[in-house]
Amino acid sequence: MKVQILSENRTNDPACLAEHGLSVYVEAGDRKILFDAGASDIYRKNAERMKVDLEKVDMVVISHGHYDHMGGVPSFCEGNKTAKVYIHEKAFEKTYGMENGILDKEPCSIQWSKQQYEKLNGRLILTKGVTWISDDIAVSGTIPIPDDYVPTETFFLKNEDGSLSADCMEHEQFLSIRLRDKNGKSRGIFVFSGCSHTGVIPCIQYAKSLFPGERIMGLLAGMHLYNSDAESRNHILGQIASEEMDYVLPVHCTGIFAICDLRGLMKERCIPAGAGDKFSF
User: Fold this and answer.
1) Structural domain tally of the chain?
2) Interatomic CA distance for residues 268 and 266, integer angstroms
3) Choosing a second label site near 107 at 20 to 30 A (CA), which of 80, 96, 158, 265?
């Protein structure tokens, strides 16, 4: 499997651009997949620099309904006329973040224009439960959340009467891919998660349930730990390290402290990734 980071919060490549967003190009078997599409068309510029032909992508998976993961979908569909876009049916609600008890003025959700949405309508595959692309590739749909899970950040919906209700983030989903060796034997599952708003550990646990008896060999994820306290962060990172995965690529909203701490726990098996980076697994 080949993985190339097209858009991310940071870059080590002076020829690539960075933004607050995520977009990852994946080649797995005969499938060419775009996982998330960043906040803008920066992923396209980086793709050109990295010699990734987006016209050959045959499917897009959007992790959740926030602008920094789906802002580039309209521009993608202008250049690629055939790939379907797998996105959760609940991803289109207008949601807001909150800081210090004050609701953000601008929504953090989808920001497509009405015209863009109308053009995309025939390209969208709306998910809810798990969607199997093949025996080896699954889009999770809604991720089951443990009763005791406490999110690191809460987003809000505005009700008709002006009141607010918490977004339970049921539109969060991940991409999971079973990798096989030359003899067709499973090497394990690789999981791609955009922000893990419903928890990175529930993502891992649900991926295991989708592929019973399989090990999680790799994880590329925004883990949304940038604003978590040290105790919570260390607890989650300890659970990740205990999975004994071969590769963990912390990206986007994971946060620099969590990345450094996870590197300390996992050594070379933790690979900090930025726009322009390329990997083979």
Assistant:
1) 1
2) 6
3) 80
Both tokens assigned to 73: 């979908």
pLDDT over 90 percentage in the chain:
90
Instruction: Please give the helix or strand (H or E) that residue 191 lies within, else none.
Output: strand 186-193
Structural domain of 138: 2-280
Can you give the CATH number for the domain in which 10 is found? 3.60.15.10
The pLDDT of residue 129: 96
pLDDT tens figures, 117-155: 888 988 999 999 999 999 999 999 999 998 888 888 899
Sequence-separated (6 or more) residues with CB below 8 Å from residue 3:
24, 25, 26, 27, 220, 249, 278, 279, 280, 281
Please tell me the distance from the alpha carbon of residue 74 to that of residue 269, in angstroms, as a whole number: 35
With beta carbons less than 8 A apart as the criterion, state whether 133 and 162 touch.
Answer: no
